[in-house]
Amino acid sequence: MGKPTGFIEYLRELPSELQPDSRIGNWDEFHLPMPEEKLQTQAARCMDCGTPFCHTGTMLKGMASGCPINNLIPEWNDLIYRGRWREALDRLHKTNNFPEFTGRVCPAPCEGSCVLGIHNPPVTIKNIECSIIDKGWEEGWVEPEPPTKRTGKKVAIIGSGPAGLCAAAQLNKAGHWITVFEREDRPGGLLMYGIPNMKLDKKQVVQRRLDQLEQEGVKFICNTEVGKDFPTENLLKEFDAVVLCTGATKPRDLPIEGRDLKGIHFAMDFLTANTKALLDNSKNGNFISAEGKDVVIIGGGDTGTDCVGTSLRHGCKTLAQLEIMPQPPLERAPDNPWPEWPKIYRMDYGQEEAAAKFGADPRSYLTTATKFEGDEKGHVKAVHTVTIEWQKNEQGRFIPSPVPGTEKVIPAQLVLLAMGFLGPEQPLLDALGLERNARSNIKADYGKYATSIPGVFAAGDCRRGQSLVVWAFNEGRGAARECDRYLMGSTDLPG
Ligand SMILES: Cc1cc2nc3c(=O)[nH]c(=O)nc-3n(C[C@H](O)[C@H](O)[C@H](O)COP(=O)(O)OP(=O)(O)OC[C@H]3O[C@@H](n4cnc5c(N)ncnc54)[C@H](O)[C@@H]3O)c2cc1C
Ligand code: SF4
User: Fold this and answer.
1) Are residues 332 and 283 both part of a single domain?
2) What region holds the FAD/NAD(P)-binding domain (predicted)?
3) Does residue 2 have a pLDDT over 80?
C-alpha cells in the first residue's frame, strides 16, 4: 500500500475535460491528460483494504460488481504511487489485452465496489488504468510480441469486436495461426463502428492495436460475411477450431403507427454511417444527417447517449430523448447497497453537452412514443408521446400503462431508435446448426464457451446478450483458453 493516509489527505479528482460547448464542434476525444503528480496522489487514495472488492468481477442482481477481467487494481495503484509505471503496465497487461479501450469506455463497475466508496468518493480506477496504458504507448513500451513458436493449428474467429480481438490476441500468443473474419470494411466491431470517435478515437487508438495484432501475425479478412461471402461448411474443413464473436446486433424495433415513415432509423445505422464518413472523409449514400433537424431519440442507454452526442455535432435544431424507465435516485436506494453497481442518476457526456446547448438534460423519463406522424411526402414530422406508470399485472409482472391526459406531440424530422438489442443475428447460427438458449443467444456455458458443435466456441454478446466491452474481453480471453485446451489437450492461457 502506497500511502496509508492517502485516502484521508486527498480528494477524488478526475482529469479536466474540454467544455461541452467547445467540444461539440469536433469529433476529438475530450478528456485531457492528467499530470503525473496528480495521478500519483489519486493512486495514493487506494487503501489496499485487505479484502478488495474492486477486482472481484461478480454478478450481483444482474449487474457487474467489481472488474469483470479481475484487473490487479490495488497492485497497480501502489506502483503508480511509487512512480513505477513500467511495472504497473506489465501488471495491467496480465489481465487486460487492450486497457486503452476499457480505460476510455468502461462504466467502471470496479469503482462501484471500491471499499473507499462506502463512505467517500471511490478511487479513480478507470482514469489511472487509462493513464498507465497511454504512457506505455507514449514511451514505446507497447511493442508487437509475436509468438516464438507456432503450433501449426489454425483458428477462425468470426467477428472482430472486443471479444474477437481478445480471443485473437490470446490464441495468437499461444502460437496458433489466427484468421479473423469481419463483414465490415474495418475490424473492431462496436469499438470501430458503434462507440463514436469522441469517446474512443479510431485512427489513433483503435487502429494502433489492430496494426499491432497484424504485426504479431493475426490475419484480418474484412468485407467478408461468413455464411454469405465465405461458406459456412468450409469453416471446420479449413480451420482446426472456430470462435464465434458475432455480437448481439439485432436491434429492438418499435412497431407503432407510422413506423415505416422516412426519417426513422435504427441508432446503429446512424452511428455506423457517421463514423464511416469521418474515417473516409466522405459521406456515402447511407449517411444520415441530423443537421438543422428536430431529433427524437428513443432509448436512454449508452447507444441513445451516443446518438445525442453525434446529433449535437451534426448541428441538430432541437433534441429530445425518451426513456421508459423512471429517473434513478440521486443516491443509492436502500435496496441497492455497496458493493452493487450504484443505480443512480448520472449525466453522461451526451446529456452534459445537450444541457450546455439547450439548457437541460434532454431525457424525459417514464415516457414512451405512441405514434409517428408523417407529412404529405411520407416523412416523419412528429412523435406522439405519453407518460406511463409501471403497474403490476395479475401475474405479478410490471407493465407500463399510459397516464391519461399526459399526451404530447414533439416535432421530429429525425427519429433514432436506441432501445437495445435482441441477441445475435440467426442465419449463420442456423447454417451451423448451433443450439440456442431461450433468448436466442448461442448456447455455451459461461467459463466453458463450447457450443453444441465440437471445436466451435462462442464468446461476447452473441453468447451472453448485449453487454459491455469489459465482459466481451472476459469472454474472448476465456474462450481462447478453452479453445487452446481443445486444440492442445492443456493450456497455459489465463482466463
Ligand atoms: C452504440 C453503442 C455504444 C456502446 N457503448 C459502450 C460503452 O461506452 N462501454 C461499454 O462497455 N460498452 C458499450 N457498448 C456495448 C459494447 O460495445 C458491446 O457489449 C461489445 O462491443 C460486444 O463485443 P462483441 O465482440 O461481443 O461484439 P461486437 O462488438 O458487436 O462485434 C461483433 C462483430 O461481428 C461482426 N459479424 C457479425 N456477424 C458476422 C459474420 N457472419 N461474418 C463476419 N463478421 C460478422 C460484426 O460486423 C461486428 O463487427 C455499446 C454498444 C453500442 C451499440
Ligand atoms: S476494465 Fe473497467 S471494471 Fe476493470 S478496472 Fe478498468 S474500468 Fe474498472
Assistant:
1) yes
2) 153-476
3) no
How far from chain centre, in Å, is Cα 294?
Answer: 27
Mutate to test the pocket of ligand 1, among 158, 243, 302 (most ligand atoms within 8 A of CB): 302
Residue 234 DSSP label: G
The residue among 400, 419, 438 that closes a domain is 419
Q: Is the CB of 67 under 6 A from ligand 2?
A: yes
227 ligand 1 Cβ < 6 A: yes
According to DSSP, residue 252 is labeled P
CATH code of residue 95: 1.10.1060.10
pLDDT at 284: 84
Q: Which atom of ligand 1 is nearest to the CA of 469?
A: 11
Mean pLDDT over all residues of the chain? Answer: 96
Cα-to-centroid distance, 19 and ligand 1 (Å): 29
CB 350 within 8 A of CB 314: no
- Say what the pTM is: 0.97
| 109 Cβ closer than 6 Å to some ligand 2 atom | yes
Q: What pLDDT score was predicted for residue 285? A: 86
Distance 214 CA to ligand 2 centre (A): 26
Residues 27 and 117 placed together within one structural domain of the fold: yes
- Spell out a b/e string for 292-321, using b for 16 or more CB atoms within 10 Å of the CB, else e: ebbbbbbbbebbbbbbbbbbbbbebebbbb
Assigned C-alpha cell, 150? 507456432
pLDDT at residue 366 is higher than 80: yes
pLDDT band at 1 (very low <50, low <70, confident <90, very high): low
Range of the domain at 304: 253-419
Helices 73-81, 85-95: crossing angle, 10 deg rounding: 170
